[in-house]
Amino acid sequence: MARRVIDQLYIAYFLEEGAKYMINRFNNIENLKKYKHIHMIGIGGISMSGIAEILRNWGICVTGSDIAKSKITDKLASHGIYVSIGNDTSLAQKSDLIVYSAAIKSDDPEMIIAKQRNIDMIERSDFIRIYY
Questions:
Q1: Residue 97 dihedral angles phi and psi, to the nearest 5°
Q2: Angle, alpha carbons 26-32-34 (nearest 5°)
Q3: How far apart are the first and last CA of the chain?
Q4: Are residues 99 and 41 in contact, defined by beta-carbon separation less than 8 angstroms?
């Protein structure tokens, strides 16, 4: 009998914690949707491309750039995500948020434009920590 009560308490606790997690995650998604256009520098990386796919599925306009064409960039393009091979400062200028991979240097032309225009910028790992 005591074991059953303990099991029920554990189940109740995990359901409550799961509900809190889902509510928090929903709020994060809603906060993210304030950005109408997210541009991703280094979109051809495995984690950046995955983030791009998720954002697109949430209805956010996503564009990106990468140094080289690959199977990943081709796949993104086939899913309606515009990918520039090489820098495209016009895409960065039109965005509300720039997400960049750790490999991107501060002298990257898209980064410079974003800084000049005070466009919100966030490194990939920080983006994941905040929004996922």
A1: -150, 135
A2: 120
A3: 39
A4: yes
Q: Phi/psi at 84 (nearest 5 deg)?
A: -90, 130
Average pLDDT taken over every residue of the chain = 85
Q: How many CB atoms lie within 10 A of CB 90?
A: 11
Side-chain half-sphere of 44: how many Cα atoms within 13 Å? Answer: 16
Q: Tens digit of pLDDT for each residue in 80-94?
A: 999 999 999 999 999
Residues 6+ apart with CB under 8 A from 103: 42, 45
Sequence letter at residue 126: D
The token duo for 37 is 């256009």
Residue pair 91/82 in contact (Cβ under 8 Å)? The answer is yes
